[in-house]
Amino acid sequence: MFISTRGNIEPQTSAQAIALGMVPQGGLFVPCEVPTVDWRQYIDSDYAALALAIMKSYCGDLPEGTLEQAVKAYHDGRFDTDNPAPLVMVGNCGLLELWHGPTAAFKDMALQILPYLLTASTKELGEDKEVLILTATSGDTGKAALEGFKDVAGTKIVVFYPDGGVSPVQEKQMLTTGGNNTYVAAVKGNFDECQTAVKHIFASEELRQKLSENQKVFSSANSINWGRLLPQIVYYYWSYLEAVRQRVVAPDAKINIVVPTGNFGNILAAFYAQKMGLPIANLICASNKNKVLTDFFEDGIYEINRPFYLTTSPSMDILISSNFERYLFEISGRDSKQITQWFNDLSTTGKFQVDADTLNNCRNNMTAGWADEAEVLATIRKVYNEYQYLLDPHTAVGMKVYEDYKNSNGDNTFTVIASTASPFKFAKSVLAAVTDDQDEHDPWAALIKLSTLTGWKIPDALEGLREKPTMDVYRCKPDEIAPYLMHMFIEG
Ligand SMILES: *Cc1c(COP(=O)(O)O)cnc(C)c1O
To answer: What is the pTM of this model?
Structure first.
């Protein structure tokens, strides 16, 4: 069963929590009890078998056949490697490459699975309704969600992205999805404004009512949906199994995990893996110049009244890290009154401050750091020169924060860094970092140059993308989203 971080809904089954996406009155679903899963039992398993076991431990109410069907996605050719999440040694840390799926970013690891969970959940609830999936994206979620839900019967998906706030390649990827149930809208404003507008739609009783009258329901493919987080827990277990198999970690020895963080979903999945019994010593939360989380770990104040920067790691250009609410819920001993207070403060004043105990508990569990733009580029260059290994800018943020961490405390624990995107997704920045070619403004030419220079193959997801025909995009202001949805999907 699943409860709300704000204590404002009675416990729900996993089918209900996944179908709803978030608590309609505000708040996020968290498991009532966190199951334990013993990594030793899976040392000989393939990825799908591990994924099945972990998903079953949370979704006992979904038909086993659905879960079995879902995990086939990892081995049926959608990923370009037999191992969907290889652990590659670079220097003395392990890079967990999570970008071998159909869109070349880690979001595929979960978004290839979520459609199965979501359609099974609505069926389980006996609702013969069409699911209208709304997704705000800072770039990578949008394409991965479109790709996951494309042509899935009984669903329509609308992706909202900040107009001008995603890379040309990301935009082109979204606009070339195809499928008979996919829609894309560019919203004036930054990602936070986009995400907040979409959250308001979910919270609108009026729209919900109208949808229901038309045999439709809303759901979300963002990491506010538990069905998104769940498949992400799997790869942290996998990284541990791989490290033991490669003999870089002794069985039962603890490891550290570094996660380049935006909405706090990916690192939250690592946190739950730790709660489930995976031997994790320290979690390291890496931010770019939008370092709202690093500041929080300094002084216990979460403050979004600050400049918003567009960086070379756009998927981390976020000030409102939605899943931090779940983390604070767990860390504060599941105090839903306190969470409600803090997050009301955040939406009314743009900040909240936690008590000293909570801050201490956070610090004992997690370390936070950030990297500026020059450091990110220098890290990409250094790692390429030393190891002929290409980091994308998001992963480079993680690498730099890890180096700072290690230099400051000498912790030699084996460390896994979540590698969240293919370097080719951000070819222009990566090319500028590894060569003196600073002037390649054409992202498509940069792709080819990077491949020629390094001998690395352009992922199928990006090869030939430039020539593909694009679909129409609806451009609007945040307050035009509701009328658009009414017109396109409810009254129409
Ligand atoms: C989404 C994304 C992130 C941030 O992950 P969160 O779960 O939002 O913290 C980091 N890097 C890349 C490449 C991403 O696409």
So the answer is: 0.94
